[in-house]
């Protein structure tokens, strides 16, 4: 097994993790200061969202210098100190890599936009403006994907914000520059990379109108050349790679992450996170979750590895999305943890998830800071939706739900800063925070801590085969992990009502030892004549089958 298979990952959004100088923005020293917290939790590697120099139009995903640290976070000597502190504490460091686009303030683009003859002009994607907007392509953030550049009388492509021009990966010089930059970070001690928007590198080269934007810029034929080159670089340097590949078809799973010839070690696929339609939250469908997650588990059962997650910096909080953050907040936090965590793959925890942090539900649109959220709100209003309904949509879906300050203490600003935070803390920080949980055996934090220890000490929960169990209805998600004679049963009731669960005959015939659960039980064992359970709302139970 590789280190990234045995360990648990923890994503840090540096801007919101810990501020040490009172400017309201998290920094590298804040991360270093909380290494003891990460060690106590038990994670084995940390993925940092971007800390590169940036105008921060899209919170760091618009990079103006790939080889500089944004001054709001620190500098390169502080980064080197962070790497050393991590490695001294047996923590691996994974950096966020953004190869699809740069900031419009990157020196490459500043040169490219001045003249068609500039060597950097072909680092980006241009179309002549004489016939008007080149095609009907739209940006992921809304509006046309083309922005006019007066100096050259051309349009440039941006599939995200207009301040994020797309790089032209058809140009070998672009690829060489990116590869050299990656090598530069590897030489500084980075252990791996998360690859942002990696599925978008290839664009439809006819630049024709499309009815579906996926045809123009998602997993376009020919992308394999770029992905293989990237993958080969990572393999040559023995660093971990995990690609953000929203929309990657499960039929291509092995092509992406086969252990023998896949591009990367893992990918984040988002089938199970699509719980919204036109900005509205839809009722959770457990049968759909079973299908979405199990198809990836099965596709990589004998070759490849899954990245397991229910939260990140682009998603609303899991307790508010999959669970019940009011009546069953703590039960939901623990249930969701064990439910996704014990499938086959590497679990990722997003900062604050281990505390059960919830959506912010800010009362005013002006409280939100995210560029995409602003576009979504304005589009909703323009489409005739009332301001109150548009705000309700944002409260459920905004990326800022995951970007509020980490809730360290019940003190002002959740202990995140002594200044004014760049975005306000969730109002529930006096109740939900690390200080009140780390020494509480019944807390969400210590449930995650126990879960991490259980996985680390149980080979079947790392290497074991995954099998979905047949559970009729729309409440229970249950599966087994099997390695040799060792079987573990994971049962989760993902609803606010009681639910029935029947053990299959070949499991019911044996004694079942409860090794982890979020409800108090009177007995530690279920005997061989117990075949049925009544699960409480958001109850999760992990049983070892004793044969």
How would you explain this protein's 3D organization?
The chain folds into 4 domains: 314 residues, Alpha-Beta Barrel (TIM Barrel), CATH 3.20.20.80; 51 residues, Alpha-Beta Complex (Oligo-1,6-glucosidase, domain 2), CATH 3.90.400.10; 32 residues; 84 residues, Sandwich (Immunoglobulin-like). Helix 6 packs parallel to helix 8 and helix 13 runs antiparallel to helix 14. It contains 18 helices and 23 strands. It is globular. The protein is of the alpha/beta class. One of its GO terms (molecular function) is alpha-amylase activity. This is Alpha amylase, catalytic domain protein. Keywords: Glycosidase, Hydrolase. Belongs to the glycosyl hydrolase 13 family.
Compile the SSE list and pairings.
Blueprint: H1 3-6, E1 9-12, H2 28-33, H3 35-41, E2 45-48, E3 52-53, E4 65-69, H4 76-88, E5 92-97, H5 107-112, E6 126-128, E7 146-149, E8 154-157, H6 172-187, E9 192-195, H7 214-217, H8 223-237, E10 240-244, H9 253-257, E11 266-268, E12 276-277, E13 280-281, H10 286-299, E14 307-308, H11 318-321, H12 329-341, E15 346-350, H13 371-382, H14 387-397, H15 434-437, H16 444-456, H17 460-463, E16 465-468, E17 476-483, E18 486-493, E19 499-502, H18 505-508, E20 511-517, E21 525-526, E22 532-535, E23 540-546
Parallel strand pairs: 1-2, 1-15, 2-5, 5-9, 9-10, 10-11, 14-15
Antiparallel strand pairs: 3-4, 6-8, 7-8, 12-13, 16-17, 17-18, 18-23, 19-22, 20-21, 20-23
Helix pairs in contact: 6-8, 12-16, 13-14
């Amino acid at each position: 097994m590789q280190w990234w298979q045995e360990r648990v990952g923890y994503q840090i959004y540096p801007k919101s993790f810990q501020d040490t100088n009172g400017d309201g923005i998290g920094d590298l020293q804040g991360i270093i200061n909380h290494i003891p917290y990460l060690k106590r939790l038990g994670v084995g590697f940390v993925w940092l969202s971007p800390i590169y120099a940036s105008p921060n139009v899209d919170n760091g995903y618009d990079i103006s210098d790939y080889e500089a640290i944004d001054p709001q976070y620190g500098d390169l000597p502080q980064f080197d100190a962070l790497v050393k502190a991590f490695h001294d504490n047996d923590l691996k460091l994974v950096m966020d890599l953004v190869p699809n686009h740069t900031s419009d303030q990157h020196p490459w683009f500043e040169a490219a936009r001045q003249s068609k003859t500039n060597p950097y002009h072909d680092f980006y994607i241009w179309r002549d403006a004489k016939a008007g907007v080149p095609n009907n392509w739209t940006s992921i953030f809304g509006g046309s994907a083309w922005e006019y550049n007066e100096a050259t009388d051309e349009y440039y492509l941006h599939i995200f914000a207009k301040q994020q021009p797309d790089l032209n990966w058809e140009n070998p010089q672009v690829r060489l520059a990116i590869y050299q930059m990656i090598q530069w970070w590897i030489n500084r001690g980075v252990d791996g990379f998360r690859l942002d928007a990696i599925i978008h590198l290839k664009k439809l080269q006819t630049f024709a109108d499309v009815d579906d934007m996926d045809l123009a810029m998602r997993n376009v034929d020919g992308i394999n050349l770029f992905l293989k080159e990237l993958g080969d670089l990572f393999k040559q340097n023995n660093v971990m790679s995990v690609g953000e590949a929203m929309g990657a078809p499960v039929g291509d799973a092995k092509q992406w992450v086969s252990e023998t010839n896949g591009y990367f070690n893992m990918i984040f696929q988002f089938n199970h996170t699509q719980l919204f339609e036109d900005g509205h939250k839809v009722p959770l469908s457990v049968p759909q979750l079973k299908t979405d997650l199990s198809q990836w588990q099965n596709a990589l059962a004998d070759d490849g590895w899954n990245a397991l997650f229910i939260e990140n910096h682009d998603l609303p909080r899991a307790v508010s999305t999959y669970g019940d953050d009011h009546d069953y907040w703590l039960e939901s936090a623990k249930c969701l943890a064990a439910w996704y965590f014990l499938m086959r793959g590497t679990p990722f925890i997003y900062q604050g998830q281990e505390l059960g942090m919830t959506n912010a539900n800010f009362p005013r649109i002006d409280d939100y800071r995210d560029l995409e959220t602003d576009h979504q709100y304005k589009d909703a209003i323009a489409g005739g939706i009332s301001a109150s309904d548009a705000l309700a949509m944002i409260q459920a879906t905004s990326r800022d739900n995951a970007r509020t300050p980490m809730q360290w203490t019940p003190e002002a600003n959740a202990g995140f800063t002594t200044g004014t935070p760049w975005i306000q803390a969730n109002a529930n920080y006096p109740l939900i925070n690390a200080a009140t949980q780390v020494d509480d055996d019944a807390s969400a934090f210590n449930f995650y801590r126990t879960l991490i220890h259980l996985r680390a000490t149980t080979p079947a929960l790392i290497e074991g085969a995954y099998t979905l169990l047949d559970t009729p209805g729309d409440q229970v998600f249950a599966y087994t992990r099997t390695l040799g004679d060792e079987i573990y049963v994971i049962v989760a009731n993902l609803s606010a009502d009681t639910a029935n669960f029947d053990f299959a005959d070949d499991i019911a015939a044996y004694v079942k030892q409860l090794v982890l659960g979020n409800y108090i039980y009177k007995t530690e064992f279920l005997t061989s004549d117990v075949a049925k359970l009544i699960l409480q709302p958001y109850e999760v139970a992990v049983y070892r089958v004793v044969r």
